[in-house]
Amino acid sequence: MALTIVILISAALLEVGGIALIRMGLLGARGWIFAGGATLIIYGLVVNQGLLDFSRLMGAYIGVFFVVSQTIAIVLFHESLGRAALAGGALIVAGGAVMMLF
Question: Which of 4, 32, 87, 89, by CA, is between 20 and 30 Å from 63?
Answer without folding.
Answer: 32
